[in-house]
Specification:
There is one protein chain. An eight-stranded parallel barrel has the order 2-3-4-5-6-7-8-9, surrounded by eight helices. The chain is globular, with a radius of gyration of 25 Å. Helix content is 36%, strand content 18%. It is an alpha/beta fold. A hairpin with an 8-residue loop joins strand 14 and strand 15. It contains 18 helices and 16 strands.
Length: 590
């Protein structure tokens, strides 16, 4: 029997350190739920001491996700709740704050780190090697007095003196560490060097047999996955990963690459995993949509070209036998190849079956979200000549999630009126289907829009928004020099009275053809600085919240307006107590 490989996911901590990425609390909780369903063993939920908002996000994940067993039971599954982990520097306040954030999870862990390379000790920490070991013993010991499960990471281990590193790790074990994580902080090592380092440390650290050895590799030289696997070959039994490989600089080791390497080569690595690989693609899409970090087309495992064959020779081989050029079955990672085509005559049962096939079964969508998605699906099916594709379905789910994830620290799923009872196989929508979602659950909703544009014409836009707070429709118009989108966004700002900075705008097609569904994603921030609270925490942390919005429509102008309004609704409902620390203040190098 092979050893269990512990999958430690740091998408919500190190992954969120990707430049330009800031997830609000609801988005972090939603991703955490998906990671738990996926079957990861540990979720590093964040850096609680960074700000009150970061603390609240970690605490909510501990309370709402920590006890969930959905998708985690059965043969080949982990069969226990996920461990919720909080990161802490070797500082008493950090460690106590991390414990307070995670303690409500049935299984929780404190992750303590301290640099051990001479360059960090001399120039950053300004302490000696002996002082470093003393601090490790004191701070790991403090963490152990609060929590049984303690992970210690020597920052910049890849450039640390091996003998001293073994001494420092021995101190951590003596103080109570149960996992020793060896980071290649700057992605400098080769697979041979990193594998050799793991082997050396396991042989020269006192108490090495009492702990789990872990890898944490960065992708600066494109070797994160190779280095992590070299560590596994040399005795590591935990790998720290992020979905899509997102993270600081060039990113972290990609979760999907590690899992599918072990999955595809069961005899090459002395370990097995308990991940539900069929959820890899839907998890990848969720992280892509909520983080705004697009997955490159040729990305291994989850890129849109991963299972496409352009070469005639390859196409011929695949048609005769898929194994000629496919080492992984697409369906094993959630890329469907079924023949269930959906169209305007498809009913709820077929729609639900397709969602389950794409990885959105169970509680991935609430009843309200399912209803909203079905309404959008029927509208799309009526407008498309071709059938609704899997890409369209993924985009519809992303759209619904974007409109129902609030920014105030609570679920923003719309209240749904009682719908008329219909057969599960019915292809008809209730007459009031489009009215079932209560517009009052969002501050602003698009009522009407008219746009004039063209060559040699100054673009103008007239927009009517429903303001739920005032209970009335508001109409205004604007013109712009740079096209219809600028005109629309300008008039929305005029109506709402908000001064908004557009940080990112992305439009893409979900399938082929002129009637394809367009998906628009935006990220915005207020140009007006947020006032500090009574304790001045915002000033202390330099936070300026950012908000994302996503929408789909066959008309990309309409999709652009709705994506902007979705982000704007998050902005106006934002609670200052939920404000996250700035990217700089919550980023730590491990």
């Amino acid at each position: 029997m092979t050893d269990k490989l512990i999958i430690f996911d740091t998408t919500l901590r190190d992954g969120e350190q990707s430049p330009g990425v800031t997830l609000n609390t609801d988005e972090k909780v939603e991703i955490a739920r998906q990671l738990a369903r996926l079957g990861v063993d540990v979720i590093e939920a964040g850096f609680p001491v960074a700000s009150p908002g970061d603390f609240n996000a970690v605490q909510r994940i501990a309370r709402e996700v920590g006890s969930s067993m959905e998708g985690r039971t059965g043969e080949g599954r982990v069969n226990e709740p996920v461990i919720i982990c909080g990161l802490a520097r070797s500082v008493e306040k950090d460690i106590r704050t991390a414990f307070d954030a995670i303690k409500d999870a049935p299984r929780h862990r404190i992750h303590v780190f301290l640099a051990t390379s001479d360059i960090h000790l001399e120039f950053k920490l300004k302490i000696s090697r002996e002082q470093c070991k003393e601090r490790i013993y004191e701070m790991v010991g403090l963490a152990k007095s609060l929590c049984a499960d303690i992970e210690f990471s020597p920052e910049d281990a890849g450039r640390s003196d091996r003998e001293f590193l073994a001494e420092a790790l021995s101190v951590a074990v003596a103080a109570g560490a149960t996992t020793l994580n060896i980071p290649d902080t700057v992605g400098y090592n080769t697979p041979q060097e990193y594998g050799s380092l793991i082997k050396y440390l396991r042989e020269h650290t006192q108490g090495a047999e009492q702990v789990v050895w872990s890898t944490h590799c960065h992708n600066d030289l494109g070797l994160a996955t190779a280095n992590s696997l070299a560590g596994v070959t040399n005795g590591a039994r935990q790998v720290e990963v992020a979905v899509n490989g997102i993270g600081e600089r060039a990113g972290n080791t990609a979760l999907e690459e590690i899992v599918m390497n072990v999955h595809t080569h069961p005899h090459a690595y002395p370990v097995h995993h308990t991940i539900n690989t069929r959820l890899l693609f839907s998890t990848s899409r969720m992280v892509e949509d909520l983080s705004g970090m697009a997955v490159q087309a040729n990305k291994a495992i989850v890129g849109r070209n991963a299972f496409l064959h352009e070469s005639g020779i390859h196409q011929d081989g695949v048609l005769k036998n898929k194994q000629t050029y496919e080492i992984i079955r697409p369906e094993d990672v959630g890329v469907t190849t079924g023949n269930l085509a959906l169209g305007k005559h498809s009913g709820r049962h077929a729609f639900k079956t397709k969602l389950e096939e794409l990885g959105y079964g169970g509680s991935a969508l609430s009843d309200a979200q399912f209803q909203q998605a079905f309404v959008k699906f029927k509208d799309l099916a009526d407008s498309k000549k071709a059938g609704v594709t899997d890409g369209d379905m993924h985009a519809l789910v992303a759209d619904v999630r974007s409109s129902t994830l609030g920014g105030n620290g609570t679920s923003a799923t719309p209240e749904v009126s009682a719908a008329p009872v219909t057969s599960p196989t019915s292809t008809e929508l209730p007459e009031d289907a489009h009215d079932l979602v209560d517009p009052a659950t969002q501050r602003f909703a698009l009522r009407h829009m008219q746009v004039f544009t063209g060559v040699g014409i100054t673009p103008t836009a007239t927009v009517t928004l429903y303001d739920a707070q005032r209970g009335e429709d508001l109409t205004d118009a604007a013109l712009a020099k740079n096209g219809p989108i600028e005109a629309i966004y300008s008039v929305i700002q005029r109506i709402t009275g908000l001064d908004i900075e557009l940080l990112n705008f992305n439009v893409s097609a979900t399938s082929e053809g002129q009637d394809t569904l367009g998906k628009v994603a935006v990220r915005i921030a207020s140009r007006t600085p947020s006032p500090p609270d009574a304790e001045g925490s915002l000033t202390a942390y330099g936070a300026q919240p950012k908000f994302t919005g996503l929408a789909t429509d066959v008309d990309i102008i309409t999709a652009s307006a709705n994506a902007y309004i979705s982000a704007l609704n998050r902005m106006v409902s934002h609670d200052s107590a939920d404000t996250r620390a700035s990217h700089k203040d919550r980023s730590v190098n491990i």
